[in-house]
Amino acid sequence: MKFEKKRAENKQEIPTTAMPDIIFMLLLFFMVATTMREQEIRVTFDLPQAVSIEKLQNKRIVSYIWVGNDQRIQIDDAIVKTKNIYGIMRNKLANIPALIVSLRADVNSNMGIITDIQQELRKANCRKLNYSARLRVD
To answer: Tens of pLDDT along 69-92?
Structure first.
């Protein structure tokens, strides 16, 4: 007499009833946690080095001005002339009263352009100015 093993006939399947909920939660998490780059940087620059730096806490109220190594100035996605900085920054300050301007200038930028930018920001009443740098590693 030969004995046969009886096998269970139920299949081992992965339950998929909660999968849409999990996918929705992951999608929602990544939508909330991800920030998109707002501007395309069109100027090339090399930030100067600093001994100590302080990171800005609230980047939503920061407006960046880039000064490239070819002395071009970029605000948002546009290359601008120095005389146009006043109007652009005045409008931004009207929309965001706590606006902080972060100047990201190339290490070899002409100091005359930096001074001209500072004068236009003063005229526009943008008094909160931050100079961007990278930390010097010794």
So the answer is: 999 999 988 999 999 999 999 999
